[in-house]
Amino acid sequence: MSRSRSGKITGVWIFYLAAGVFAVGFGAAVLRDRRRFRNAVLLGLSIVCLALGLLGESSRLGPEAFDRFVFAVVVLPALAVLVLAGFLLVNGMTMIRREGLRLANLLSLLAGVACLVVVGLPLLAYYTQHRLAMTAALVLMLVTGYVAFLFCSYLVYAVVYGRLGARPGAGFVVVLGSGLVRGKVPPLLAARLDRAAAVWREEDDAGGSPVLITSGGQGPDEPVAESHAMADYLIARGFPEDRILREDQSRTTQDNLTFSKALMAERDPAARCVIVTNNFHVFRAALTARRVRLNGQVLGSPTARYYWPSATLREFAAILAGHPLVNLVMCASLVAFGIAAGT
User: Fold this and answer.
1) Rounded CA gap, 89 and 86, in Å?
2) How far apart are CA 245 and CA 200, in angstroms?
3) Where is average pLDDT lowest: 29-43, 59-73, 192-206?
4) Fewer CB within 10 Å of terminal CB in the chain, N or C?
């Protein structure tokens, strides 16, 4: 076996070894606490290293098969980004039509435009061979790669976390509030309440005595506190009123969990809880629960398909904003490296 061949094989197995190390680290981190963003990063690193190892195996292909493989590796991702851009642009227009022209509803539209820029700028740099355009394209690809890695890691782990069932024996079920529409519970919030009621009944049927907490304060454009409208919705559908506590002071998710924790501590400080929100919000709610030291598993309820992309992007942006120093340092380092390499 030639030295170069042996070197390639050794390099491939280094990636496989790294994938195994990251996978073990991921498993240990999940066992320690499911509610950490580093779990998503470790899972992402494991998948990336495994993919690099598999890419390294392409050296064993014949010349014709290798050319097809390289074409697929280069062209298919670009086509996938263009398809994604089209989907996000269409979804962005749907969000504006159904939900109104607000910044939060523009995220999928803006993400679609960003995808077109990510594909277009490198092509422009390639055809013009302009040094500034090539440097800008390199910087853009490095920063985009970093953000895309975090987003894909977040997305995969959020799906994994969302499928983890809550352990039985919870003493409380907490429903996180969201905006009312003319004082009434809209479909988004109704889905949370229906899921929470189902979880409560499972615990009650198993012989427990759970308490359901509706959590949500009164916004400036709301005639009543969200928690009261939520409780009224449940009672109208036969839920026992004496098993509901109303937390009506919160304005944010952190408030929801902090104030609900105080209500739980008054009754049973050692009790575990199940927290219910919409599926796009599950992982960030779990991160927040960990931050306020609330012992609870978060479960998700269904969300309208057209609403999910923008909501997911908003959740990811909020998670990035929660780690400003690390992300700013990483992006600044990538920008500096791209500028240095392009000059």
Assistant:
1) 5
2) 13
3) 59-73
4) N
- Over range 15-32, report the average pLDDT: 93
Query: Which amino acid is residue 324, in one-letter code?
Result: P
Predicted pLDDT at 1: 37
- Is 296 in contact with 275 (CB distance < 8 Å)? yes
Q: What pTM value is reported for the model?
A: 0.86
Judge residue 324's burial from the number of C-beta atoms within 10 Å of its C-beta, 0-12 exposed, 13-18 middle, 19 or more buried: exposed
- Antiparallel, parallel or unpaired: β 273-278 and 172-176: parallel
Measured between its terminal Cα atoms, the distance across the chain in Å is 40
Six token digits for residue 250:
């919160």
